[in-house]
Amino acid sequence: MLIAAARRRVAAWRQPHAAARIARALWIAWAIIVWNVVFDRVIVVAGRNYVAAASRAADIPAAPFANMDDWMRPAVARGLWIATAAGVAVLLTGLAAVEWAARRSARSAESLALQAQAERLTLQAQPEHLTLRGKTSPARQGKPR
Question: Which of 54, 90, 105, 117 has the fewest C-beta atoms lying within 10 Å of its C-beta?
Fold first, then answer.
């Protein structure tokens, strides 16, 4: 019973509308992760640069000490802009790809439905003696093979 319920739930996820919704959520999550990684990287690089500058300033007795705010405040602003640009690029690319795929899937499903309908209409329009649904054609009836 539990396995059957799990299979039904997984089958529901495979439907185009549900799959597109899941794909959108995953692209949004990916954009948030990219934003976080890029922002963190900019802050880490700025912190390393500050430590190197503070080390150089400490080595010279007459030099002024490096102020952390002078290094990190611009890094935060720069990190926000760079991370936002990267996150928006990933988000727009992903959502556009999902929209394109959803439209393509809807068109192919629609064309398959129209094709099946046309085949049904063609089979209905054919006279019975021309269709070979498990029967022999009138021309072959009575003739041995």
Answer: 117
What residues contact 109, with CB distance under 8 A and at least 6 apart?
A: 16
Q: How far apart are CA 69 and CA 52, in angstroms?
A: 15
pLDDT, tens digit, for every residue of 72-118? 999 999 999 999 999 999 999 999 999 988 887 766 655 656 566 66
What integer pLDDT is reported at residue 135 of this predicted model? 56
Cα 30 to Cα 88, 95, 138, distances in angstroms? 11, 11, 65
Residue type, 136: T
Largest CA distance in the chain: 116
pTM value surpassing 0.85? no
Q: Where are the alpha helices (DSSP H) in the chain?
A: 2-13, 16-59, 68-125
Cβ 101 vs Cβ 20: under 8 Å: yes
Q: Token digits for 47?
A: 């912190």
Calculate helix-pair angle for 68-125, 16-59, nearest 10 degrees: 160
Amino acid at position 9, single letter = R
**DSSP state letter for 128:** G
